[in-house]
Structure formats: structure tokens, C-alpha cells
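Exam review. A common question shows you a sequence with its C-alpha cells and asks you to describe the fold in words. Practice with the pair below. Do the first one on your own.
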Amino acid sequence: MSRALRVGGLVPLTTLDYPGLLACVLFCQGCAWQCRYCHNPDLMAARGEQEIAWAQILDFLRRRQGLLQAVVFSGGEATLQGGLVAAMEQVRELGFKVGLHSAGIKPWAFARAAKAADWVGFDIKALAEEAELITGVRGSGQANWRSLEHLLASGAAYECRTTVHWHLLDVERVWRIGERLRAFGVEHFAVQLVRSARMHDPTLPRVAAPVEVEDLWQRLGELFPHFVVRKD
């Protein structure tokens, strides 16, 4: 492989990150966005202090053949690395299903990776016109939603998910995100309540859920064929 994947961390076993399968998660180093609630800020830099050599990852996977069913490429933002698709193909050759967690920072790169994946967990940060308030990067919302179009065209199984910090999003905004996703044809949507123990921006205040939140969950459950709220 011409460019070895830079992996900043590994979860050796999870039942949560690829629906229905036993998987491991590879946390790819590097992210171009600065999401204020990010709980993996150590992965933002292009190079990390705790990187795991790709050869070591392959050795680990060979030892898990017949035990694990899937490998999930997460981040950071995996699609920013030029070696991602080749790494995904190597993993598939070892007999694993391939999962991808992404926010589609570069739509053209995401489109290539989505076609190489069996399942994609896709992060919708906010409405396209408001995403900069979360990511800190101009144009991030347009890239995010353009990549959603690539995802839906790819044929990969998927789940769209939005992380909610009630200081950054409110009930009306979350509902509008849901409406817009459904208009795109999205059928699988998850809301993930933020993990506040460790965030890129430690000044974000802890805000209680609004009183209307249960009504919001009910309305989203009626809007989507498949909807879930994840609270931790």
C-alpha cells in the first residue's frame, strides 16, 4: 500500500459500532474540523503521539479472523487519509465487513470511501447553513450535506446521526434537521446526546434537556421508519 493508514487508537471489540456484528474500531488520525463537543480531540492533529503501525493492525486482524465480523474505520475523519480505500480493501480481503464513520468533510473523498464500505455511520452536524457554529469551518455544512447525497447514491447500508449539545442545538433545529433528512429520503436516523465529560471546547456549558424533548423524540419516531435516541 503506497500510504499506510495512520491509526491513533483501537477498540478491539464492540457490539455498538456496526449494527448486528461484532466489530473492532480503528480511530484514524486527523480531522479538518474543530467540532466544539468532540470527545476525541487528540485525533484532530494530522499526526498523533500514540499511532499504531498499520502492519501491527493487520497482525491484530489476522489473529481475530473467525472471531470478529467487521472492522469500522472511524476518526478523526478517516476519509482525509489517502490510504483509506486501500486499507478498507485489505480488511475486506481478510474476510471482514467494512464499516465507516464519517462526516464527509471532502465530498469527493467520501464518495470513494462510501462505495468501498458495507455500512456507513454518517454524522450530520447541523443544518447546512448553521454547521459552522459547531465545526468552526466555513463551508463545512455544504460539504456535509453534499456528502450525504453521495452516501445515498452509493448503495451502502447506513445510519445518519446527529450529536446534540443543547447549548448548540435546540428542539426546533433538531426537528428541522430531521425534516430535511427525510426530504432527502433518509430512513435511518439516530440522535446521540453529547458526551460532556471530555470535549474539545471545555467552556461549553452543561445544559439540561428542554421540557419539549420527549415530544420531539415522538415526532421524529413518527417521521422516520427507523429512529433511535442514544443517551450515552
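Now try the second one, then compare your answer with the model answer below.
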Amino acid sequence: MTETTAGPVRDRLLDVRPGDRWLVAVAHPDDESFGCGSTIAHAAARGAEVTVACATRGEAGEPAPGSPDGDLGTVREGELRRAAARLGVGRVELLGYRDSGFDGDPPAGSLCAASVPEVADVLRRLVRELRPDVLLVLDGSDGHRDHLHVGAAARAALQGMDGGAPLLVEHCLPNSLLRRWLQEMRSLRPDTAYHALDPATLGRDDADITDVLDTAGVLDRREAAMAEHRSQASPFDGLSPDLRRAFLVRDHLARVDVPGDRA
């Protein structure tokens, strides 16, 4: 807690209580599980009412071998809803954009074809409706343009918001951890697009991380949620046990100062 002239103020990120409201804004189905699933489960297990807003249905994803048949967007939407339930999420909102893909010209109607102010307006309406205590996003430091776009829109949505703005928190992957991941991936998946990225800029600078959550207690929820995304290859498959556990039992977060937010 922090002290004010009116007394201590509860830290709404670390001191989660029943009835708190969280809004999680992500770009694709599976971001909520492969990305910030442990933080979501951690909040839900403590009684928070969690809403996941997913910008796309993941149409541009690459189906994993043996993935379910059918339209990929429909398949992935179903996976999202089942995974969210596993994490303890009470509500899922689809924002209606198409998946932009990793690179190339963004297709018409895709998330990155929409301006940041447009997407910010959509998120701002949700914030005003739900009045969340915390708005959680991925920080986009993995390099995916859709992740970056949602993060930029979240910051823009809260700019200048009068009173009652949520605390904006970015889920991060530390550079030190991603360097270990990239090294192992060179032998596991030598064709992945992430090898084109500069390792020095991959992930978040470790010094920027403000909070580290011990999420070992909700590992079973996260594992169950990730297993629902059968159409997609897990980024943790095939990793050494130590590295896999490093990703899954400690979540790294960064609080973002936005004019009008609250601590």
C-alpha cells in the first residue's frame, strides 16, 4: 500500500480482492493463455471479475499439425472461450478486427489496418462500461505488430481519462528470459519468424519490470487453458523443464504511467 493524506491506498495489482474488476486486452486467441494466462488466473483465483477483450479471431495463425478441421477463426474463437473459462474469466468480448499476420501489408479490416485512435475508442468504451481496476495488456516486446497495436491503443484509450481510470499494466517477457528461449528455439524450430529479430531488442529490458508475481499456485489453471489451444503450437513445447517453468511460474509486469490513471 501507499500512503496519502487520506490514509493508505490499496495496491490493486498486488492486493486483489473479491469484486475487483480486471479488463485484459489482447490481439489474438491464445494471447490470454500463452501470454498473460498466469496473471489472469492469479487475479481470478482471488475473486476478481475478469473480462478478456480479444481484437481478432486469429485468422492468420498457422495451424499446428493435427489441429481441428474447419474455419481457423471459428476454431480459434472456440478455443479462446474454453481457455478463458479455464482461467476463471467471466466474460469474453471479440472486437471484430481481422488478424494482421506477422508482416506484409495489413489486410483490409485487420487490426493494424485500423488506426490507433480507432482501436483506442473501442477500448475506451469498454473501460467506461466495465470500470475496471486494472487494464492488462501484452507489452508487444515479442515483436508482433498486433500486440504492439493493442498496447498503443490501450495507452491512448486512457490518456486524459477523467477520474476512475484503471491502472495500466503490461505483461512482459524479460530480455534475459527471451534470450534463453531464442537459443533453445534455434534447434527446436529453426524456421520460426522470431529468428529474424535482433536478440538485443527482444523482450523487455529487465530493469523496466516493476513487479514479479509468483504464480506457481495457478499453474494447473494455466496448463489447462493452454491445452485448449489445440490449433496452435505452444511456444513452450519442447523447452527444457527449467526454462519452461521459468516462463510459467513467475509473471513479469510493468506498470505504465498514463495521465489520469490511478495507482
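Model answer, second protein: The chain is about 35% helix and 20% strand. The first helix runs from residue 31 to 35. Full marks require stating both points clearly.
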